[in-house]
Amino acid sequence: MQKLKFILSGGGTGGHIYPAIAIANELKSRFPDCEILFVGAKDKMEMQKVPQAGYPIKGLWIAGIQRRLTLDNMMFPFKLMDSLLKSRKIIKQFKPNVAIGTGGFASGPLLKAAGSAGIPTVIQEQNSYPGITNKWLSGNASKICVAYENLERFFPKDKIVFTGNPVRQDLIDIKGKKKESRDYFKLDPDKKVLLVLGGSLGSRRINQLIAKELVNFISQDVQVIWQCGKFYIEEYKHFDEKENVQVKAFIDRMDLAYAAADLILSRAGASSVSELCLVGKPVIFIPSPNVAEDHQTKNAKAIVDKKGALMMKENELDTQFTSTFNKLLEDKALQESLGENIKKMAMPNATKDIVDEIIKLIESQR
Q1: Which CATH number describes the domain made up of 170-344?
Q2: DSSP characters for 138-197?
Q3: In this predicted model, what pLDDT tens digit does every residue of 151-168 receive, in sequence order?
Q4: CATH 3.40.50.2000-classified regions of the chain
Q5: Average pLDDT for the chain
Q6: pLDDT at position 50, please?
Q7: DSSP secondary structure letters along 28-78
Q8: In which pathway does it act (predicted)?
Q9: Binding site, residues?
Q10: Residues linked to residue 222 through DSSP beta bridges, in sequence order
Q11: Cα–Cα distance between 173 and 170 in angstroms, integer?
Q12: How far apart are CA 84 and CA 95, in angstroms?
């Protein structure tokens, strides 16, 4: 059998990168001798995170369109053409059996070039409202794997497969990691733990909230693991000196962070929501309002509507957060019901189901 080759692209944020890595890991486990190549955007986090996961990556000169008039926006047509040309060259040299895109601007030119070369393409859309790149690619895609229902208004119905979002496999069984997690983070086993997740780049509004609420948390003997993001670590790292508070730019052992947590405060990016369903802990979502079509609110609402989480909008935080958090902290029955209900929405086999679709495409080409 000829050695299989797969090319993957997804980046800009952890929400696009980690699903791509999860898919690559599953492909490698099924086809140990296969070749895998990633393509990302130069100077974005995938250029570090993908090699750390053990895969080679090539960078494109591409970036997103800003909402205001900037020099980068004026350069976008040139960057797009350059990236399309480089993508065609990569596809021609690597000759993949399938190209897989998990969102982010680099996946646009790569999958466009792959489709033009007759290579089967798979899109993995994480959100309840698709990003501009995946909408642009959907017409020529072979398969579109989605995590939310009712996406026929955006994508061709006959190409959609409902799989859920890929998640890190080390999250599937975190129950047995409680003691290891407490030792890893040097936590007091008799005190509650709040895990704060503002996304891989960080959230200014959530960081401002936590800085203000630390007195409340500490007064109630709550330990805080606070992932503030790489853009904000210099501004907030001095809080790390406080007892019961750990401030981190990035958390490498997310399995242990989730295992340690009693309560979780999080943005509602698609990958985070999928992970939190698997983890099954009580969550307060604070969706980012600064995303296309407010899709984080839609992501969170899909969970809240089934009584699987609480949600607060940013404009409610100053007046309602303290009372909402304190009520959740005191109400064990509410904690248990939220954890049980969110767990019901987990799709732990998503990565395997997506790879099954990729294999079907390969077999149909033979």
Answers
A1: 3.40.50.2000
A2: GGG-SEEEESSS--TTTS-GGGEEE------GGGTT-GGGHHHHHHHTT--TTSEEEEEE
A3: 999 999 999 999 999 987
A4: 5-166+348-364, 170-344
A5: 91
A6: 94
A7: HHH-TT-EEEEEEETTSTHHHHHHHTT--EEEES--PPPSS--HHHHHHHH
A8: Cell wall biogenesis; peptidoglycan biosynthesis
A9: 13-15, 127, 168, 200, 251, 296
A10: 192
A11: 7
A12: 16
Alpha-carbon distance of 124 to 180, in angstroms, equals: 33
Q: Residues within the annotated binding site for UDP-N-acetyl-alpha-D-glucosamine?
A: 13-15, 127, 168, 200, 251, 296
Place of tokens 């200014």: 204
Q: What is the pTM of this model?
A: 0.84
pLDDT at 246 > cutoff 90: yes
Lookup: tokens for 281: 């802990």
Tokens of 280: 């099954």
Between the alpha carbon of residue 189 and those of residues 112, 150, 223, the distances in Å are 52, 43, 10
Does domain 5-166+348-364 correspond to CATH entry 3.40.50.11260?
Answer: no
Q: For residue 309, what are its two tokens?
A: 């989480």
List pLDDT tens digits, range 52-80.
Answer: 999 999 988 776 555 555 556 566 667 77
Q: What is the DSSP letter of 291?
A: S
Q: Assign 295 a pLDDT band (cuts: 50, 70, 90).
A: confident
Kindly report the number of other CB atoms within 10 A of residue 78's CB atom.
10
Chain-centroid distance of CA 57 in Å reads 19
